[in-house]
Every structure is written in structure tokens, then in C-alpha cells.
Amino acid sequence: ARRHPRRSLHAPGSGGACCRMERTFIAIKPDGVQRGLISEIVSRFERKGYKLVAIKLVVPSKQFAEKHYHDLKERPFFNGLCDFLSSGPVLAMVWEGEGVIKYGRKLIGATDPSKSEPGTIRGDLAVVVGRNIIHGSDGPETAKDEIALWFQPKELVSYTSNEEKWIYG
Ligand code: ADP
């Protein structure tokens, strides 16, 4: 008999039945932090059934913000965006779960909150694209890069959640 239940303790990407376990980088931007939306946003990821594996409050430098958004450096809003991200505390997090990268983006909603569906974080809590309160990695490669940019490996906490057997069966 298998000694360990499916998915328990295995690190994402370690193979086996747990291979759909993923990690994504989620950040509450300075507007979300200043507006007191941390607990509201964190609770949506928690209640869904995802597992928090890293969290910290940081004020990124402008240079760090430029690294985070390097893909957008040709866009006209790049400078303002980087000024904004470095203007105050950002709540940086890593969330783990099956399909969390793609579904996390669904919870977040469309980039422009005027087009985000009601029920999504941006749809419910934000109004304009320049102040859309939250960031989430847009794919597995980005997730890996962003987690490595914002966190040291030792800051990622592996632990067993007793709820997992109720969430995944
Ligand atoms: P997302 O954050 O949904 O992945 P993008 O990667 O396209 O979206 O853009 C990154 C961030 O840049 C957005 O979340 C938003 O804060 C900002 N942004 C995008 N488009 C605009 C715009 N037209 N004007 C101002 N800021 C923008």
C-alpha cells in the first residue's frame, strides 16, 4: 500500500500524482494595501482552497519594479506603472494549488476593472486599469521567474495542510 496519500507533502513539479500542483506569484499592489483590501483578497484565495506558502510586505525600489514589469518596458504606461508599484507597500505572496496559475487569474479578473466580471477581485474592488489592486503571474514560466525575483527559496514554506484531503479528495 502507498504510505503517503496522493499529493501530500510532495513539492510541485516533483512528479507523480501531484504533478498538477503549481505555485503562482500574487501581489497586492500599493493601492490594494492602502485601501485596506489585504484580508478581503487573501481570504478569496484561502476560501477557494489554495495554500499560502510565502507572504511578505515590501516596498520595492523603482529598479525592482522595472525588473518585475520588464516585459512591458516598451509600453507608454511603463514608467508610471513602475513609479506606482514602488510608491508604497506591496503584499507579495506565493499560492499553491492545482491549476492556481490560470484559475488565480480568473479570480483576479480582466486587467481593466471596467471590463472585469462582477465576482472577480478587480470587478468587485477596482475601477480603473492604472489602479487595479492586484497582480498575478500569467503563466508557468512567468510564475517561476516572478517567485524567484520576489522570494528566496528559504522563504517558501512547505507544509501539509490538513484540509487538502477535503479539497482534493
Ligand atoms: P495583468 O496585470 O492583468 O497581467 P498586464 O501584464 O497587461 O496585465 O499589465 C500589467 C499592469 O500594467 C496592469 O495590471 C496595470 O496595472 C498596468 N496597465 C496595463 N495596461 C495599462 C494601461 N493602458 N494604462 C495604465 N496601466 C496599465
From TrEMBL:
This is Nucleoside diphosphate kinase. NCBIfam families: PRK00668.1. Belongs to the NDK family. Keywords: ATP-binding, Kinase, Magnesium, Metal-binding, Nucleotide metabolism, Nucleotide-binding, Transferase. Major role in the synthesis of nucleoside triphosphates other than ATP. The ATP gamma phosphate is transferred to the NDP beta phosphate via a ping-pong mechanism, using a phosphorylated active-site intermediate. Shows the highest specificity towards GDP. The keyword ATP-binding applies. It is found in: Plastid, Chloroplast thylakoid lumen.
